[in-house]
Amino acid sequence: MSRKESLLVVATLEPVEVGDRFEKVPLHVTLLPWFEICGEHRKTLDDHLAVAAADHPPINIVGEGEAMFGAKNDIRVQRVGSQALTELHEQLLHTINQFGSDYRNNWVGQDFVAHVTYLKDAGLGKEQQATLNALQLFSRLDQDAERVVEAAYPFQLKANSDV
């Protein structure tokens, strides 16, 4: 059995490039929280992510209001309810469940709420709009390690979908 990789699937608000490294993931909507997958499934995961992205036009989001998330209600977020993001999350969750992936997050599936987490004071404001143009796959060696952009999967180039 091959080594497990710790991965995260997001759609960033600003473009990032494969190979970029960050202390914290830039402003984004999480589509799949950190999960572990055996390296032997990585190519199949890449293929699934590419197809999922190609099946979606860019997604417009609008800040709907702040909330506090996390186990201790200490993480400030801006909710961005979007049926397109919910459907994409469910599609991707189904994909990683096929691989027996291990994710350590209770806020998936029916408990998923699309949101942008503030980074210090930077974030998406209420009624502020943004367009998500791609999925990105991030990796990390451990909880405290840099976040590295492993791959990017552009959404199809069509008219933007509704929020």
Top CATH class:
Alpha Beta
> How many DSSP E strands?
11
Order of helices and strands: EEEHEEEHEEEEE
- What is the assigned CATH homologous superfamily? Cyclic phosphodiesterase
- What is the helix tally? 2
Low-confidence stretches: none
User: How much beta, percentage-wise?
Assistant: 35-45%
Q: Helical content, roughly?
A: 10-25%
Total domains, how many? 1
Rounded mean pLDDT is 88
What's the CATH architecture name? Alpha-Beta Complex
**Main beta-sheet annotation:** 6 strands, antiparallel
Supply Rg: 15 Å
Structural class: alpha+beta
Instruction: Fill in the CATH topology.
Output: Cyclic Phosphodiesterase, Chain: A
**What gap, in angstroms, lies between the N and C termini?**
41 Å
Gross morphology: globular
Biggest sheet, spatial arrangement of strands: 2-11-10-1-3-7
Q: Helices and strands in order, then pairings?
A:
Layout lengths: L3 E9 L8 E2 L5 E11 L3 H13 L4 E4 L2 E5 L5 E5 L3 H16 L3 E2 L11 E3 L11 E4 L1 E7 L6 E8 L9
Antiparallel strand pairs: 1-3, 1-10, 2-11, 3-7, 4-9, 5-6, 6-8, 10-11
Helix pairs in contact: 1-2
What does this structure look like?
With 163 residues, the protein is α+β, with helices and mostly antiparallel strands. It has a single domain (4-154), classed as Cyclic phosphodiesterase (Cyclic Phosphodiesterase, Chain: A), CATH 3.90.1140. It contains two helices and eleven strands, in the order E-E-E-H-E-E-E-H-E-E-E-E-E. The protein has helices at residues 42-54, 83-98, and strands at residues 4-12, 21-22, 28-38, 59-62, 65-69, 75-79, 102-103, 115-117, 129-132, 134-140, 147-154. A six-stranded antiparallel β-sheet has the order 2-11-10-1-3-7. Strands 5-6-8 form a three-stranded antiparallel β-sheet, with no helix packed on it. A hairpin with a 5-residue loop joins strand 5 and strand 6 (75-79). The longest helix has 16 residues, at 83-98. The radius of gyration is 15 Å and the shape is globular.
